[in-house]
Amino acid sequence: METVLIVGSTGNIGIAAAHGALQPGRKVLAVVRSQASADKLIKAVGSADGITTVVADVTSDTGIKGVVDRVRAGELPAFQHVYACGELPSC
């Protein structure tokens, strides 16, 4: 099973990306700003099946590191693909 990490998953493009990624054999790990954003995504997609949401601030190094640390700890699914629908800070 492959997982697509989607950053910026609750805007129009992000929701479309989540729809596209949710096909047989794939799941989505959606990074969202708040639980309200997660609820918006689930409502737009129509189901929470195959979607794991995580609240994080990707504009900070600690927010990104927190997601990666949780993946490494097995708290979140490992991902094989990344789709960024927003502006990320420069590294």
Secondary-structure element order, N to C:
EHEHEHE
CATH topology: Rossmann fold
| End-to-end CA span | 30 Å
Helix content: 25-40%
Q: What CATH architecture do you see?
A: 3-Layer(aba) Sandwich
Strand order of the largest sheet: 3-2-1-4
**CATH superfamily, called what?**
NAD(P)-binding Rossmann-like Domain
> Proportion of β residues?
15-25%
Radius of gyration: 12 Å
**Tally of structural domains:** 1
Number of helices: 3
Structural class: alpha/beta
Using the alpha-carbon principal axes, give the shape.
globular
Average pLDDT number: 92
Task: Give the total of beta strands.
Answer: 4
Low-confidence stretches: none
Largest pleated sheet: 4 strands, parallel
CATH class: Alpha Beta
Question: What's the short story on this structure?
Answer:
By secondary structure, the chain is an alpha/beta fold. Helices cover 36% and strands 24% of the residues.
